[in-house]
Design goal:
This protein is of the alpha/beta class. Helices cover 11% and strands 24% of the residues. The protein has 3 helices and 20 strands. The strands form 6 sheets. Strands 1, 2, 3, 5, 6 and 8 form a 6-stranded mixed beta sheet that branches. The termini are far apart.
Length: 294
């Protein structure tokens, strides 16, 4: 009988439990496949992945929304965020004086984007926070600001005064390098109004083209801590009449206990095209004036 067939133990591994070739009229039954079916179903590519994933936190949802929204708004400012830092991208107000915040909520304001205060024609006074490290080009173009202090932590501010009417530029004490192209205009179509610059005693390097094209600048004092005046630093300062290098009597001790005076290197073309500059008295600190092709 069929029941006896199912109950009978197979005589060998090759003997079918349900041998249809012997003329059995019932459907064949593969016990091995039947027993494995549940395991195969679980490992099937089409099986639904039931792995539990933690729901995003409220902070993660908020941060994602901020990143997706682009510019954000705080009072009269627009800004973007990256990590824990904020970049000021714009400002809309008719105020004459402004002190920028160093923080917006949990974010530290570290940068100002190009054109951020452009065409704020009523703005005549702007105080920047010490948290700022980057200032974009043309950032006060079209304003009435005539004096600006660059915070000590700024490391990049190329062409930042382009299009402005700034006359007095103060680099804050504590800064060690005047950034490259800090007071340089982007091109000759802009007038450079810079007439006075204050370089702090903490400066050791005057960056490449830092004051290039400041045609209204008449005098400059190089602090004694300066060890490098980079290429084209004062090139094109056609109104420059006086350059004072301050002597540094510090004795520097290098490897091998070698003692020598504090040294100063002047880069190539540092004072090129300064047509009003007829005489410069260098100190003993100057040990190298680099060639044009160097």
């Amino acid at each position: 009988s069929i029941d006896d067939t199912y109950k009978r133990e197979p005589d060998s591994e090759n003997e079918s439990l349900n041998d249809s070739e012997e003329g059995g009229s019932h459907d064949s039954f593969d016990l091995a496949r039947f027993e494995q079916a549940p395991e195969e179903a679980q490992s099937s590519p089409d099986a639904e992945d039931t792995t539990l994933v933690d729901d995003p936190t409220e902070e993660e949802i908020t941060e994602t929304a901020k990143e997706a929204s682009g510019d954000l708004t705080y009072e009269n400012f627009t800004y973007t965020v990256s990590g824990s830092n904020a970049t000021i991208t714009g400002y809309t107000s008719s105020a004459a004086s402004l002190t920028m915040p160093s923080k917006i909520g949990e974010y530290t304001v570290t940068a100002i984007k190009d054109y951020a205060f452009s065409d704020c024609s009523s703005l005549t006074s702007l105080t920047l926070p010490e948290s700022i490290t980057v200032i974009g080009s043309y950032f006060i173009e079209g304003t009435g600001i005539k004096s600006i202090t660059i915070p000590k932590n700024v490391t990049s501010c190329a062409y930042c005064l382009t299009g402005s009417v700034v006359e007095d530029v103060v680099f804050e004490e504590g800064m060690t390098k005047i950034p490259n192209k800090a007071c340089m205009q982007y091109n000759d179509s802009y007038i450079n109004y810079t007439t006075r610059v204050q370089i702090p005693e903490s400066i050791t390097t005057i960056g490449s083209s830092a004051f290039s094209g400041c045609a209204e600048l008449t005098e400059v004092s190089i602090p004694k801590a300066v060890s490098t005046v980079q290429n084209y630093a004062f090139s094109g300062c056609t109104g420059l009449q006086s350059v004072q290098f301050n002597y540094n009597d510090e004795i520097v001790i290098t490897a091998g206990n070698i003692r020598h005076p504090y040294s100063l290197t002047i880069g190539s073309c540092a004072f090129s095209n300064c047509s009003s500059l007829s005489h410069v008295e260098l100190t003993e600190n100057v040990t190298e004036i680099q060639d044009y092709n160097r």
